[in-house]
Amino acid sequence: MAKPIVAVVGRPNVGKSTFFNRIAGKRISIVEDQPGVTRDRIYTEAEWLNIPFTMIDTGGIEPDTKDIILSQMRKQAEIAIETADVIVFMVDGKEGLTAADQDVANMLRKTKKPVLLVANKVDTKDLPDTFYDFYQLGLGEPMAISSANGLGLGDLLDEIVARFPKQQEDIYEEDTIKVAVIGKPNVGKSSIINTILGEERVIVSDIAGTTRDAIDTPFTHGEDKYVFIDTAGIRRKSRINENIEKYSVIRSLTAIERADVCLLVIDASEGVTEQDTKIAGYAHEQGKATIIVVNKWDIIEKDTRTMNRYIKDIRDRLAFMLYAPILFVSAKTKQRIHQILEMVKFVSNQHAMRVQTGMLNDVIGEATLLNQPPSDKGKRLKIYYATQTAVRPPKFIIFINDRELAHFSYTRYLENKIREAFGFEGTPIWIEYREKGGDE
């Protein structure tokens, strides 16, 4: 199921970044060190009381800095209202109440989402006189915290988690392949969906999605069951200015969370942009099977090397996603559209594939003979045993003598050997090392 989303809004310099860094620093992801994944985050994965959630960094999605502060805050509040399950409205406890705070509070009072009013920079137990002015905002009792000193964060996280919606059971049968069509605005996501549905003459029924008013479109193709998970804005024009592309990442978060397979749609006339790398990076980090779909291929002037140049550019820009197949399509002319569902089914099977332990260890053993494990100061990495512990995505645990000797380059080598032997096309592979006693 999708993780709850928490959005933090507030004017600049109220301490949002300090708060994010403090929360994000408590989580270490096993795929965090993959090269090529953008570090310019506008979200962070967090966990409290064993409940994982996604936190949106609205400080990282401020539009053009020439805009006035109030305009920036309005857009932050809009994306929070549209996307989040819980909204944290952060104000400056030292500076006190401002007119800009009042304006955003007026917007937030109209939403049906839970809103927590948080006064940051309250570094002592003695509340400043200005603290009580925040009651005027009509958002309930303010909570005093200090992100810099870590004061009050536990209580705040308790309150955030307590307001999460109850998770709904997945309404689809287990063999239904859930497909998220993701990408920037105006790259043709909805056109691709409509073309697939029309071309395949499928049985279509629109039902309300399980989260955030999305519209899911379940359909069958032959004996296979699918559901398209719409990112916000596919079915209805968003209130958010479509020109602010950074918001497209946030629109994709929930769809990616719920999906088995992601179709990352790229505009052929633009190539891979910074926003494409951010959206792709999130799908990769979530361990989702992914297909790169280059749309509007019909408008590109071509010679015999055009497609190869595009493939090279995509592989260079999305170097962390070399496993993802690339399709060049046109929703307008229907070129290669029929290949999309075939590829979705294929990578979904690869994503769920499990290999036999004996065969896996044969591959690892042969790989270590061809290329000896690294050594440091006379001590060599020893690989004792490997096993697959999970699917969607495939996860492997390798038992070794010393984790510090397991360099990234050798991990990539082992991953490549596993892929050569078994495939795993379209899906990331997670490899985790565990130390095991043994003779040196």
From TrEMBL:
List of residues binding GTP 1: 10-17, 57-61, 120-123
Boundaries of every EngA-type G domain copy: 4-168, 177-352
A Pfam family it matches: MMR_HSR1
Keyword Lyase: no
PROSITE patterns: G_ENGA
Role: GTPase that plays an essential role in the late steps of ribosome biogenesis.
Subunit structure: Associates with the 50S ribosomal subunit.
Protein name per UniProt: GTPase Der
Species per Swiss-Prot/TrEMBL record: Thermotalea metallivorans
Gene assigned in the entry: der
